[in-house]
Structure of Zinc ribbon domain-containing protein:
Amino acid sequence: MPIYDFKCAEHGLFHELVAIDKAGEAVPCPECGIQCKPVILVAPSVLAMSPDSKKAIETNEEARHSPIISTLDSRAEADEKQKFAMSKGHRGCGCSEYRPEQSALKQQVVLLPDGSKVFPSQRPWMISH
């Protein structure tokens, strides 16, 4: 039987062994006998986490089974990163000095007179903003 956490309004938290089929049910407080509902305890680090970090973690969890899309740019960047990692002085060091240069495709940006940008070679169907 697993141990569940319960909270009494007068005496605070207490722990009880409860059968799994009765996990959501209230149990009596060991000191006063009042029926107490189970609570879920959350680590303080989760409570203090910024909303942006929580959103990033949720997004990563949702996308963890998404397929990795291989593009010409991503393959070229991976090759450059591997060459950098194997270069003299960086073999297996894991340093973060790698600064990829933009590929030719990413550099093709046309600035219009009104200040908007157009990416003619990448996604002609995409509306720029």
Summary: Residues 26 and 36 are 5 Å apart (CA to CA). The first helix runs from residue 44 to 47.
